[in-house]
Amino acid sequence: MFPHASLGGASMRTGPPDDLPDTAETVQISSLALLKMLLHGRAGVPLEVMGLMIGELIDDYTIRVSDVFSMPQTATGQSVEAVDPEYQVHMLDKLSVVGRSEKVVGWYHSHPGFGCWLSGEDVMTARSYEQLTPRSVSVVIDPIQSVRGKVV
């Protein structure tokens, strides 16, 4: 089909507008990072858990997650309610002390048994991380469904 076919005077497009920039990114998650996320998520069932992903920006379109570390939080129900910012700083300091050059590239958390999607609260958390790091990545895992054979 022609990209700008006209039918009855109306323009019909078959693809995205030409003036939109390509913002698609590839996120590579190491086996170690994925396994640690799933183990952390499984250990927290039935509560949600949260952690930070560390890695590097490979180029303008690729982010590599090499490792993760879990974050202690206060959870009275199923959702993650609070994260200790002092712990984040402490862990990042420890990474530099042991010579790890990776930076925080995003965060992850679990939705045990109810699928992988960003809730309204998750979107707000993602936006706060994007304020600090514009290319921050958000990952949601479901340790229950993953144990059933679907890594999600």
Radius of gyration: 19 Å
Report the principal-axis shape: globular
Low-pLDDT ranges = 1-7
| Mean of all residue-level pLDDT scores | 82
As laid out across the biggest beta sheet, the strand order is: 3-5-4-8-9
The total number of structural domains is 1
Region (Disordered): 1-22
Domain MPN: 27-152
GO molecular function: metallopeptidase activity
Protein name: WGS project CAEQ00000000 data, annotated contig 650
Give structural notes:
The chain has helices at 31-44, 85-97, 120-132, 143-147, and strands at 4-7, 10-13, 26-29, 50-59, 62-71, 73-74, 82-83, 103-110, 137-141. Residues 1-7 have low confidence and may be disordered. The radius of gyration is 19 Å and the shape is globular. The chain is built from 4 helices and 9 strands. The chain has 152 residues and is of the alpha/beta class. Helices cover 30% and strands 32% of the residues. It has a single domain, classed as Cytidine Deaminase, domain 2 (3-Layer(aba) Sandwich), CATH 3.40.140. GO terms for molecular function: metallopeptidase activity. It holds the Pfam family JAB.
